Amino acid sequence: MSDIEIAQRARMQPIIDLAKEHYGIDAEHLDPYGHYKAKLSLDYVNSLSHKKDGKLILVTAISPTPAGEGKTTTTVGLGDAMNRLGQKTIMCLREPSLGPCFGVKGGAAGGGYAQVVPMEDINLHFTGDFHAIGVAHNLLSALIDNHIHHGNALGIDPRRIQWKRVVDMNDRALRQIVAGLGGPANGYLREDGYDIVVASEVMAILCLATSRADLKERLGRIVIGYKADNATPVFARDLNAHGAMAALLKDALKPNLVQTLENNLAFIHGGPFANIAHGCNTVVATKTALKLADYVVTEAGFGADLGAEKFVDIKCRMSGLKPSAAVLVATIRALKFHGGVAKEDLNRENLAALDSGFANLERHYRNITDHYGLPCIVCINHFTFDTEAEIALLQEKCKALGAACIVSRHWAEGGRGAENLAREVIAVAESGEPGCRYVYEEDQSLWSKIETIATKLYGASGITAGAKVRAQLSAWDRDYRSFPVCIAKTQMSFSTDPAVKGAPTGHTLEIREARLANGAGFIVAIAGDIMTMPGLPKAPAAERIDIDDHGRITGLF
Question: What is the pTM of this model?
Answer without folding.
Answer: 0.96
